[in-house]
Structure formats: structure tokens, C-alpha cells
Amino acid sequence: MDGARMSTLASLRGDIARIEAPTEATLPNRVALGHAGADAMLRGGLAAAALHEVFAGGHQGGAATGFIAGLAGRLSSRKPLVWVRQDFADQESGALSMSGLAELGLDPRLLVTVRAADVDTALRTTADALACDALGAVVLEVWGNVRQLDLVASRKLTLAAQASGVTALVLRVAATPIPSTAETRWIVRAAHSPPGNAASAWGAPRFDAELARNRHGPVGRWIMEWKCDACLFSEPSAYPQPLAATPPHRPHPAVTHTERRLAG
User: Fold this and answer.
1) Model confidence at 192, in pLDDT bands (50, 70, 90)?
2) Which helix (H) or strand (E) holds 207?
3) How far apart are CA 53 and CA 71, in angstroms?
4) What is the CATH number of the domain that holds 171?
5) Does residue 257 lie in a domain region?
6) Per mean pLDDT, which range of 151-155, 167-171, 244-248 is the poorest?
């Protein structure tokens, strides 16, 4: 009897798993990031109209900010972007640089920044912004482990994003991940630049991006390079150094044979 009950319970669990498993028809719209490995894990790209979290790994607030700016650029192409941050963030990490965002490929004219006095105000402002379906994305930047940004708060942001179709991106600096309703969670650090001489040291931004949570698939970790001109992520360049073209007048190098000398 116990064996029959266990078999029935296992069968029911299997049925529930198949019912709740997402299908291609039920998966949300996806926006490809450009990086083949990450897009494959995400089943085509980052889910729009959802909540995504980006955590700064260690003292990597600058890298996490650049990464989430890239995500926002992919999600809010040609649409306004609202960036909500606490008012002391400028003292902690500096103000957002419009010229820096422009170098990343974003249009500063489409960015609206809001400085909130506290976390509660930042959450209310983010929820209000998510209700505006004319936006492409809303970024909420929060410092530290704050009790207000709990499972209930993340659920409210997720519902607001789903209702309007606007994607919510939460940037967490100096914080530890906790349970949330986020579609994905990333932990981002700066990646090493490719070796080269001083003249070529300034290249494309590179991120060590770990996909630590993925509701619809496996997780992974990649080095992701941001292409500023194309406004997308990609695999790191195999040959970061420019190669000189062969002069057209130079003949193709001929294969030479070394004559063997016999010892006399």
C-alpha cells in the first residue's frame, strides 16, 4: 500500500512539473544580448517586462553600473530610460556621467535620472515609473542590505513590469542576494583587459558576468565584451590587436629547402 501511494505521489509530482514547466509559447518576449553563450542559456535573450537583478561582486560598483547600463541599452533602444538612485549615491560612487553613457552607445537625451531621499521613496518612484508604458526600462539603484527591498517589494515590481511591458532592472551595490521574484540575477565584476601595448590599452569594456539565477534555464559565467558602436554584448575578441595588411607588392613567401651537407 505504501509503495502504491509513493508511486501515485511521484506520478502527480511529475504531472505538476510538466504543467508548470514553461513552454516556448508561454515564455516572455526576449531581447538578445548578443553574447552567444548567455543568449543560449536565456533561451534567446533577456526577458522583457520582467524584473532582473545585477549585484556588484566585491568592490565592483563601477563594473556593475556599466553592465546594467548595457542591459538597459539593449532593452530600451530608442525609448526613454528612467534611472532611480538614492541621493547619497553621488557621494559614494559619483554622479552618472552623460559622456560616459554616450561612449557606451546610449543616448543621454533619453535618460531621466531621479534621486530619492530614502529606499521607500525610491521603491515608490520605481513602481510609478514602471506604470508608464512609454518607457523602455527602469533602473533602480540601491546601496546596502536594506530590509525594504524584500520578497514582497520585488513581487510588486514584477507585477508592475508585467502590467506595463516595461522591464525593471535593479542594481545592488554592497549587498548580499536574498530571495526575490527576479527573472535573472547577475553578479558582475570587471574582467581583465587583453594583453597589449600602452597604445592599445583602451579597448572595449569587458565584464566577468555570472548568471547566478535563471528561472527558465541553467546558469553560467562568461567574459562578456560590450560593443559600444553596435550596442550589444559579444564574445571577447580573439585578436584584440590590429593586424597590419601585407603590402601588395610583396611576393608570397616561398618555401625554401635547406641543402644538407655531407660530412667529408
Assistant:
1) confident
2) strand 206-214
3) 11
4) 3.40.50.300
5) no
6) 244-248
